[in-house]
Amino acid sequence: MHLIDFDPHNLLLSFLVSMLLQAIFFIFAATLKTDKVTDLTYSLTFLILALGLVFLNSEAGPGHYFLAGMVVLWSIRLGGYLLVRIVRMGRDQRFDGIRENFLSFLLFWIFQGITVWATMLPVTYALSQPVLPTELAFTAGTGLWLLGLLWESVADQQKFAFKNDPANENRWIQSGLWKYSRHPNYFGEILLWWALFIAIIPLLSGWAWVTVIGPIFITCILLFFSGIPPLEKRYKKKFGDNPDFQRYHQGTSMLIPWFPARSP
């Protein structure tokens, strides 16, 4: 099998496209002081990169289209969900105190562009190859990706329905998948990106192994920065004095789904 030895051209191109898209939508968001396009741009950038890379590969075959299709399907699902959510919410609390500060808001958009580019590294490399083998690793990766997508989708839908029920205004969700993990949506997100990396492992050799930065990067972002930490802080501030919340927090896995601890 003929493989390209980590050709940097598509990596550079995908970086430039990612940053250009952020710049375009940042101007719109900063001018109107709006949050409505932020998460949508995140998902849209993945979609454009996946489709663009397939289009640029003159030797693209079924495996390439299937891999790109997984990214496109994920981006449409997530982008649609986040768009509906922000339209209902009106504003995103994450950006309170940030959207009004030009430099802070700009830095967020720059970081978002870098996040998309880094997360896409395995897919960018695979879609640049003349041949994409559909071996056992690809099959296993596809299965894990589907599990991650379903897990994330169900978790998002359960939380969306919970938060839009007036009866739950001052409550936290601890039912459905949220009974087994405090952040099941992020578990699904992390799983599906590791799955895509597993799917392309047969292609990797030499410097191409640095594409593992992709799933590592998104895992670290969600675990230590913009994913779980701010939500944990917000919930503790709001419900920290509630004994029932303390039991849920202490007895429920933070990320990886597991049976909750029995109450004493």
Structure notes:
This protein has 264 residues and is an all-alpha fold. The protein has one domain. The protein contains 10 helices and no strands. It is globular. The protein starts with 8 loop residues before the first helix and ends in a 13-residue tail after the last helix. The model has no long low-confidence stretch (mean pLDDT 93).
Task: Tell me the distance between the termini.
Answer: 59 Å
Number of strands: 0
Compute the CA-based radius of gyration: 20 Å
Tally of helical runs: 10
Short description:
The chain is 66% helix and 0% strand.
Descriptive tags:
0% strand
Blueprint of the fold:
Layout: H1 9-32, H2 38-56, H3 62-89, H4 102-119, H5 121-127, H6 136-163, H7 184-199, H8 213-224, H9 228-239, H10 243-251
